[in-house]
Amino acid sequence: MAVEQTQELQPLEKSMMAARFDDSRTKEPETWYKVVHNAGPEEVAESPSNSEDELHMSHDESTTSVSRPYGSQKVALLTTKPNQPAKLTESEKLEPLEKDYRDLQKAYDDARRDLHSSSRENRDQSFELRDIKRHLAKSQEQNTQLREQNGLLQEAYQDHRARGEKLSKSERNKYNERFEMFENHISHLQHERHKRETHMEFLIEQTREANDGKERLEAEARKLQRQIRDLSANLTECRDDLLRLQPTSQVSDNEISEQFSNLDQQIAGWVDDKTEDSTVLEEKFGSIKTVDGLPEMLRMFATPDHLRLAKKYPSSQPLLLRYFVHCYLRTFILSSDVYLFGLDARTIALLQGMEEGMKQLEPCRDEKTLRNWRSETLQGLLKMDSFIEEQSRQAKLASQTLSSALSALTSASPNDDDADSAELHKQIIQPTIHLATKLRLSTTDYRLTFHPFTRDPGKTATAYHHEIPNCSMVDITTHKIVRPDSMLKVGDDGRVGEEMLVVSPALVREHTDGKGRVMVCKPTVLVRLDEPMGKRSRGIRALGAWTPSWLVGDEGVE
């Protein structure tokens, strides 16, 4: 009887257990897929995942944000009518270039928006692929459990056969029902797996098409950038041509900007050398109780807020010294009230009287004529040996005065005053006088202001996010530059922090008609942010190729 029951179960074992479960067990995906994804010119950083089987796709903001090196550039054209008709012809040639530049800039912005849209679609599809992978892994886990249960049933059946025990009809029915349930469940899992693999293939194809579209948009963006650079070069060339039509004493903004930037770097380098040992500077400021404790030359520029700032944030003390140096240079050398550094008071009064007399002539001399006359006159004075000697004498006196005031804060002993004065004269005073001479010889009006928004440099003011492109903001905590794309907490009114100190002033050029101004060099502003700057968010990791490990995580496939 046991032999008959064994013979009855053999077809069931072969047809249902071996054919069904082994077929499901050995079925694995045979097709490999790969998502073509260009990470862009910059390196794609990997985002920390919450689980081992989380799917990532590259979405670095450096690849989806197209730099606009010329978007914020303002091309300033001289509106003064020249005496020669050639300037009018150059202006007419410049108009179509400006129109083409604006059209290309608009096309560039449209391409950038399309690029952002394509990147968002890629990210959404990557999230959907991640969910599908998780579902497939879960199905594979259930399949594994069913295999284990099948193995237990087989072991039980083998035990029955080994002991030669007979299976009752109810036990056979029970096993048959379990086999049928397993068969149906496996068929359902196989169907779900096939459906999700088909959907994954569709999503991968969509991702590939989106990546191709993104690549085309990036190529178009690069082409537009090249065209913008070419047009920008043409605009610069036309601007220089227009400047060449002005009187020979005209100085370009680029030359003035370069000299002022170099001077600011020289001041920063000199201060860094003198404050290399910060303990001396901290002790000096710590011993000062009020503004009256400062050297007499620095009192006219210091306020109680500056002392509180230096004591609360010792790292800001070198920046405060830079502020004092800029204040001194602006007041006594670079100010527009200084006719020309080195001229004595009698000569200045004579020249100013001559300018006032020219305004009373008939016909009245306009401002442009007066500036041209002043430029030519000062060029003649610069050729006189007596003026050169007087300017050199006053420059050495200014170096000694400023060095003496600063050494009271930076030097532990006054033995090296002469050496410090000579070094300061070479690195700071001489370049400042050279810059001041350039400004006075120019037929345009350049001015130094400690804030482009006409704020009092001695008072704190709110720092707004929209002001970041117009000044160089420095975080008082980390001394890092605050950029427009920095991770900042922005208030409802645009506030990002509080301005503590304007370290270096802005250099602006007044329009010839007296209406408006053009910023030539940005100011450097020390700010205290409301919230510390955050780190840049890392992009999503690229998908890579399809592998069987997607179904079971990183543990592999049986």
- Main β-sheet, spatial strand arrangement: 2-5-8-3-4
Q: Give the distance, in angstroms, between the N- and C-terminal Cα atoms.
A: 40 Å
- Please give the count of helices: 13
The overall pLDDT average reads 75
What is the makeup of the main sheet?
5 strands, mixed
As an assembly, this protein is single chain
Secondary-structure element pattern, one letter each: HHHHHHHHHHHHHEEEEEEEE
Specify the overall morphology. Answer: elongated
Query: How many strands appear in the DSSP assignment?
Result: 8
Alpha-carbon Rg, integer: 39 Å
Q: Pick out the low-confidence regions.
A: 1-88, 537-558
Give the topology, please:
Blueprint: H1 2-26, H2 61-64, H3 86-163, H4 169-244, H5 253-274, H6 278-287, H7 296-299, H8 304-312, H9 317-334, H10 345-359, H11 367-381, H12 385-410, H13 417-441, E1 446-449, E2 461-464, E3 472-475, E4 481-482, E5 495-504, E6 506-510, E7 517-521, E8 524-529
Parallel strand pairs: 3-8
Antiparallel strand pairs: 1-6, 2-5, 3-4, 5-8, 6-7
Keywords: Coiled coil
Coiled coil: 200-241
Biased composition (Basic and acidic residues): 20-31, 53-62, 89-99
Provide an overview of this structure.
59% of the residues lie in helices and 7% in strands. By secondary structure, it is α+β, with helices and mostly antiparallel strands. Among the domains are: 240 residues; 144 residues, no CATH class. A five-stranded mixed beta sheet has the order 2-5-8-3-4. Strands 1-6-7 form a three-stranded antiparallel beta sheet. Helix 1 packs antiparallel against helix 3. The N terminus and C terminus are likely disordered. Keywords: Coiled coil.
